[in-house]
Every structure is written in structure tokens, then in C-alpha cells.
Amino acid sequence: MLGFIVNELSGNGRGRRVWKKVERSVLLKDIDYTTRFTNSPNHATKLVKDLLHENVDIIIVVGGDGTIHEVVNGLVFQPIPLGIIPTGSGNDFARSLSIPMNPFKALERILMNDPETIDILDLGKRYCLTVTGIGLDGQVAATVNKAVYKRFLNWCNLGGLSYTVSLLDTLIRYVPTTVRLVIDGKEMSFEKVWLVAVANSPSYGGGITICPDALFNDGLLNVCIVHGLNKWALLRVFPKAFKGKHIVLKKNVTLIQGQQISVLSDPPVPVHTDGEQLMLSPVKVTIKKEALKIV
Q1: Pairwise CA distance, residues 124 & 103, whole Å
Q2: Could you report the per-residue pLDDT of 15-51, keeping only the tens digit for each?
Q3: Which residues contact 98 (CB under 8 A, 6 or more apart)?
Q4: pLDDT tens digit string along 44-73?
Q5: How far apart (Å, rounded) are the C-alpha atoms in residues 21 and 255?
Q6: Cβ atoms of 86 and 101 closer than 8 Å
Q7: Is the predicted pLDDT of residue 160 greater than 70, yes or no?
Q8: How many Å separate Cα 59 from the centre of its chain?
Q9: Which has the higher per-residue pLDDT, 254 or 207?
Q10: How far apart are CA 184 and CA 104, in angstroms?
């Protein structure tokens, strides 16, 4: 029995169009399934509990990173695996796991039912699959999720540009801060910090490879701190991040690995997780090993 959680509004309506095609394919294959549709923020987390009571064998998300994030927060540490048919604007999680963007190929991968177990990030209030961003990242996430141009870019199949446009919009007003980090008990401080990215996967923001060495299954969180740059220098560095080339700037880009990190800033700055605005700093992030099954 397959349990589908569908966000019809993901990707500016792409979720609805893809689901119709996927449902026809499932019917032709004569597979038992049940479907739930999201209708409000965090609804997908509640729908997971409904499907677990129905004893489904796999829970499948038809949606983007935001919907996947909500589902994972209901499915973490459960024996039921997660399948993904990506229909969002960024699809960073699917991309990091080499999940096909073609919905029929994604479905075939799920039906092979060859699960792998991955790590997740624990923020206390929420679990995170991809990247938790603190500082400029957090403010960009807040901006992009409210932006009218995000819907327009999704309609043009250019949803991945939403982050870039929001970055430029946010950068006009954002001021870098002093940040104190405690990583596995070791304390360090950085001045003029633009962002701290705590990663479980290499990319976010529609393909920005912020932590190129991050892996889902190594039991480590990867941290990227961007600091000591003025706005114009940051803008010059930003394009390099799409291919992970920003890391050559050793003076202004610091990379660290660990299993637990606390981030404190003065003043407090926004925090996002999987692109969803969450809170203001301080924040503590811990790696949880082998917490989720993926097919």
C-alpha cells in the first residue's frame, strides 16, 4: 500500500499537474494506494500520522522541499520509508540524493523499494534534512517565502532563481553580526558574519553548493561561515557558490565539521531550516544518525 501526500500548490501548481499523471500511472500498474492533500502550513506532518495508522508500506511526497520537510518531521525514526516525487521550485533534497526530476522515473525508483538510511539535523523544535541557515540566509528565506516574484518565477520554470533575487533584495538592508560558535565543545568567534550554514547535504537555495563535502550518511554536520566581506565582495563571491568554488577563499569562508553546534549572535538573527523560516538565534543543531529511511 502506497500512501501519497500531495501538495497541489507546490511549484506554482506543478504539484497538481504531476499528481494527475502519477495517479494514472499508479492505476495502470494496479497498485493499492491512498492519498492525502495538504491544505495549510504544517498539515503534511499531521497527515503522516493518519497514514501510519493505515499501515502503508511507503509514504510518498508529491511536493517541494517545504512539504518534504513537514513530512519528515512526522516520519523521523519510523520504520516506514519516504519516497519523493519532486515538484517544488528548488528541489535541493531530491537533487542531493539523485532523485529524478521526471515524475515517472521518480516513481519507478520508489517502486524498486531499495531503502537507504540517512542522517538528519535536530534543532530541538524541528528536524532538518538539507541545510539550516543562520543570518543572511534566514532573512532571505523569510523574504522569498513572501515574495510575489517567487510565484512568477515558478510559473516560468525558473523557481531556482527565487533565492538569488531575494538575496539581492535582502542584502540592501542586512547588516553582518558578531557570531560565537560552540562546536563539539570547542568555542570560536567570528566578526562581520553574513551567514552560518549548517549542512546535512551539499546544496540549498535552488542549487547553491554551500558545503560541497556534506553527506547524508557520514554522521557529521558540515558548517560554512561566511565572514569579513563587504557587500560588494559578497556579491562577487556569491556566483562561485553555485559550484562550491567559494570555499577557496580561506580568509573569508571557514569550513568546519562536527556532531553538535550552538550558534549565538549579537544581535539575534533569523534562522531557517530546509528553507522554512523558524526562529531567531541562538540555535543548537545536533546530528541524528540513521534517523530516516529513503527509497
Answers
A1: 33
A2: 999 999 999 999 999 999 999 999 998 999 999 999 9
A3: none
A4: 999 999 999 998 999 999 999 889 999 999
A5: 43
A6: yes
A7: no
A8: 18
A9: 254
A10: 43
Beta-carbon count within 10 A of 65 CB: 28
Task: For 111-156, write each residue's pLDDT tens digit.
Answer: 999 999 999 999 998 999 999 999 998 888 777 666 555 565 555 6
In sequence order, the β-bridge partners of residue 263 are: 181, 283
What is the pTM (predicted TM-score) of this model?
A: 0.89
- DSSP annotation string for the chain: -EEEEE-TTHHHHHHHHHHHHHHHHHHHTT--EEEEE--STTHHHHHHHHHHHTT-SEEEEEE-HHHHHHHHHHHTT-SS-EEEEE-SS--HHHHHTT--SSHHHHHHHHHH---EEEEEEE-SS-EESSEEEEEHHHHHHHHHHH-HHHHHHHHTT-GGGHHHHHHHHHHTT---EEEEEEETTEEEEEEEEEEEEEESSSEETTTEESSTT--TTSS-EEEEEEES--HHHHHHHGGGGGGTGGGG-TTTEEEEEESEEEEEEES--EEEETTEEEEES-EEEEEEEEEEEE-
**Residue whose C-alpha cell reads 538539507 in the numeric block:** 130
